[in-house]
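Please annotate this fold before class:
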Amino acid sequence: MTPKQQFYDLAAKTLIKNLEKRGMEGYFCPDMQSAVQKALELMPKGSSIGWGGSMTLTEAGLIDAVKAGDYKVIDRTQYKTKEEVQQLKRELITCDYFLMSTNAISMDGQLVNIDGTANRVAYLCYGPENVIILASMNKLAPDLDSALSRARHLAAPPNNVRLKIGNPCTLTGKCSDCLSDTTICCQFVITRFSKPKGRIKVILIGEEMGL
């Protein structure tokens, strides 16, 4: 085990205790394969499952595992027309499990997410019976201010580049606090407590993934 892996293991123990104080369940998995297995263990067969846009979910292989499993899959990529997208929204708000990652997480257990159309944060806040978050340990920040800074300056600009939207940060490499019509930084959501308790489950991964 490398020094960084040892640090992630120690930090995760502290973070899980702080998540529990905030009504969230926390788990630590040393790698993406065990994280996917933990997520599947948490979701009974036959459950309805949807997800938000996330590089972490894709990189870890969780989306493929869900599609191959015995679940009712709500695949957002299969909804194309305006009417189908409206149907997708209705199905996601009542699904058994909603999967996502997080842009940042503070050591005291607060989740920070920035969203453009609120397709992730809406269901994090309300609707699905359970929310499972895969969060690699590189998303960890020492405090809430640092978590907000990470989400805004280290997660949002690379996501703009990935999506090829052309906002100012794709030209300068830094957040310009833009008011562009195409901005993806529309909602800043801090989750400091889970109601009902245990609805939000955070699987921490001891590898660096996502943005």
Helices lie at 3-21, 32-42, 55-60, 62-68, 82-93, 121-125, 144-163, 169-172.
